[in-house]
Input
Amino acid sequence: DSGVTQTPKHLITATGQRVTLRCSPRSGDLSVYWYQQSLDQGLQFLIQYYNGEERAKGNILERFSAQQFPDLHSELNLSSLELGDSALYFCASSANLLVDTQYFGPGTRLTVL
Amino acid sequence: GESVGLHLPTLSVQEGDNSIINCAYSNSASDYFIWYKQESGKGPQFIIDIRSNMDKRQGQRVTVLLNKTVKHLSLQIAATQPGDSAVYFCAENIGTSGSRLTFGEGTQLTVNP
Output
């Protein structure tokens, strides 16, 4: 158990809908990261937040957004969902802003029908 | 673009043998490398890491070697066990204003009893 929690574990929804994925980092960690894992793209970095502020951005679609709250938990919002958004979404956390070990949560499996 | 790639997509070994999983990276600015293990349906699990100022690091039954001259990373698993069967990813980190991991494609390790 990495100490990173994610909810829900599974999510099934329809195209055009909007969903919110939630992540709680390990106790004491200030950085939260979101990654997408799909069969054809592998593990892809989406975005990093550190102590409430966005600090790094990957190939995150404009339909996706994230935020980190004062209690350090984070949410990833996915809107106007498409079939191709079906994937595993992982949250990771680390203690610091820069070079540091990232610990991953169990993931949320999103299925868009 | 710059990327991290694995040489072998699959590796099959006998229980008790040593396993070696290789990874090539192309970004000379990468300063931190991590090996993750991912079992089916689970999030990536941290195995071992190494910083760019080192060329070898040992853990429990695992050793990571870093050759910056040829931009090569390897993970050695001693006395491989059936529980080691999983997909192994190398990841590189570049920390500037934020942090992100770039993952290789993964190697499926199968340990035969």
Summary: The interface with chain B takes residues 2, 4, 31, 33, 35, 42-45, 48, 50, 55-56, 58, 90, 92, 94, 97-107 of chain A (CB under 8 Å). Chain A has a mean pLDDT of 94. DSSP finds no helices and eleven strands in chain A.
